[in-house]
């Protein structure tokens, strides 16, 4: 991330350059206090770790007035960590459509196949082990060439 990008974005969290114009102070967003999506403290911690590692992969979604459609949990997590700026996409939707969007975006994620999930986790672990081994080789080679 470049210094210029950090200055424009007002946030240390990474995001695609296309999201920079969407940055808003999320303290101004509103909750209707009816979000059926609930997360545990552990899940909130996982959301924060994901934001730190991967940044904003998609924006918070609100209606024109700034009432959450999607991303309320991410917004709450950021506020808890004193992170006040995030990309926000404001859509011109009615209250009914905002609520429908919330339901759709919270639930329509597909169903995972246990077999394919297991195979994916195996690939992740294998790649992490390979990266670790590769780093050990590079570290050893560097130590040998500098001695």
Q: What do these coordinates show?
A:
The protein has a four-stranded mixed β-sheet. It has helices spanning 3-9, 41-54, 72-80, 95-107, 114-146, and strands at residues 23-25, 60-63, 68-70, 85-91. By secondary structure, the chain is of the alpha+beta class. The chain folds into two domains: 3-110, Alpha-Beta Complex (Conserved hypothetical protein from pyrococcus furiosus pfu- 392566-001, ParB domain), CATH 3.90.1530; 111-147. The longest helix is centred in the C-terminal third of the chain and has 33 residues, at 114-146.
Describe the structure concisely:
The chain has 147 residues and is of the alpha+beta class. It has helices at residues 3-9, 41-54, 72-80, 95-107, 114-146; strands spanning 23-25, 60-63, 68-70, 85-91.
Describe the SSE topology.
Elements: H1 3-9, E1 23-25, H2 41-54, E2 60-63, E3 68-70, H3 72-80, E4 85-91, H4 95-107, H5 114-146
Parallel strand pairs: 2-4
Antiparallel strand pairs: 1-4, 2-3
């Amino acid at each position: 991330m470049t210094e210029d990008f950090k200055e424009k974005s007002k946030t240390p969290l990474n995001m695609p350059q296309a999201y920079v114009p969407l940055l808003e102070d999320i303290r101004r967003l509103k909750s209707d206090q009816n979000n059926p999506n609930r997360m545990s403290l552990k899940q909130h911690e996982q959301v924060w770790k994901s934001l730190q590692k991967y940044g904003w992969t998609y924006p918070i979604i609100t209606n024109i007035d700034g009432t959450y459609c999607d991303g309320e949990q991410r917004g709450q997590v950021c506020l808890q960590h004193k992170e006040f700026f995030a990309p926000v996409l404001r859509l011109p939707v009615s209250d009914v459509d905002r609520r429908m969007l919330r339901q759709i975006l919270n639930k329509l994620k597909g169903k995972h196949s246990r077999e394919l999930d297991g195979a994916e986790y195996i690939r992740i672990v294998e790649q992490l082990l390979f990266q670790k081994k590769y780093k050990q080789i590079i570290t050893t080679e560097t130590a040998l060439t500098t001695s």
